[in-house]
Design brief:
Elements: H1 3-23, H2 32-45, H3 49-55, H4 60-76, H5 81-88, E1 94-102, H6 109-112, E2 113-114, E3 119-128, E4 134-137, E5 141-142, H7 147-153, H8 156-162, E6 167-168, E7 180-181, H9 195-209, H10 211-219, H11 234-248
Parallel strand pairs: 1-6, 6-7
Antiparallel strand pairs: 1-3, 2-3, 3-4, 3-5
Helix pairs in contact: 1-2, 2-4, 3-4, 4-11
């Protein structure tokens, strides 16, 4: 166990101890700190419940129950959209992007199939700061949802516009209006983009490229490579990852 893992595990362990004291829990297979490490192994490394059970000398169902308990507690700590936008308002600007998290268990196939990625998954909106660090991750919506529709449905577009947060986004968010800045979009039936428009697009792309770092940060949590759970659990898992990432970077204020 490295020092970084121990540092990140400290906060979830505190939450688990408080929860156990509240419930007056008796003997448990793992103490709160080892349970927190088990959860980190699952989320960061993507370890299956069978591997967790073998590594922590517990049953598979016990590992599943411990992960679910800790993830639920962490997800509660994630910011609401308005709190996240309030923090984004202190930045020079924000970067908005969408990503698809693959899933393999479906309640209904059609809403979760993304024609763009040709995968079943959930759509997650990612808000980043100018250096590409995660600011907020939205609740997960079915993968067939367009990025602009998803950003509107989660209240992100309205919140950013109301707070007048200058936000850079790709062409998929054209029509968002307000404080959302998107590149000029060409069309085969229209004249080519002017020279200054192409110049603006290049500058816009350089800024937006930093937002890809936030998406890449999410991908370092191997559990999101393919979620093997009910799609309705995706929001809770993603929000728990957000909280842990902020704790790891020393930016969690809760």
């Amino acid at each position: 166990m490295d020092d970084q893992a121990a540092l990140v595990a400290r906060r979830p362990a505190e939450l688990l101890r408080a929860q156990q004291a509240k419930r007056r829990s008796r003997w448990r297979r793992l103490d709160a700190f080892r349970q927190a490490l088990l959860v980190l192994a699952h989320l960061r490394n993507g370890d299956t419940y069978a591997r967790l059970a073998a590594g922590f000398a517990s049953g598979t169902s016990t590992a599943w129950r411990y992960v679910r308990e800790a993830v639920d507690l962490l997800a509660i700590l994630a910011d609401h959209v308005h709190a996240a936008v309030l923090r984004a308002g202190r930045l020079a600007y924000a970067i908005l992007d969408g990503t698809l998290i693959p899933i393999d268990r479906l309640a209904d196939e059609r809403p979760y199939y993304s024609g763009k990625h040709r995968l079943h998954g959930v759509n997650v909106q990612v808000l980043a700061d100018p250096t590409g660090r995660l600011v907020w991750v939205s609740p997960a919506l079915p993968g067939a949802t367009h990025d602009l529709t998803a950003a509107r449905a989660t209240g992100l577009i309205d919140a950013l516009t109301t707070a007048e947060v200058k936000t850079f986004a790709d062409k998929g968010y054209q029509g968002a209006g307000g404080s959302i800045r998107t590149p000029f979009k060409g069309h085969r039936l229209r004249p080519p983009l002017l020279r200054h428009q192409r110049s603006v697009n290049r500058a816009h792309a350089r800024i937006r490229a930093c937002g890809e770092r936030a998406v890449a940060t999410l991908k370092t949590w191997k559990i999101r490579t393919r979620l093997r759970c009910c799609p309705h659990r995706a929001t809770t898992i993603v929000q728990a990852i957000l909280v842990l990432q902020l704790i790891e970077e020393g930016r969690y204020l809760g």
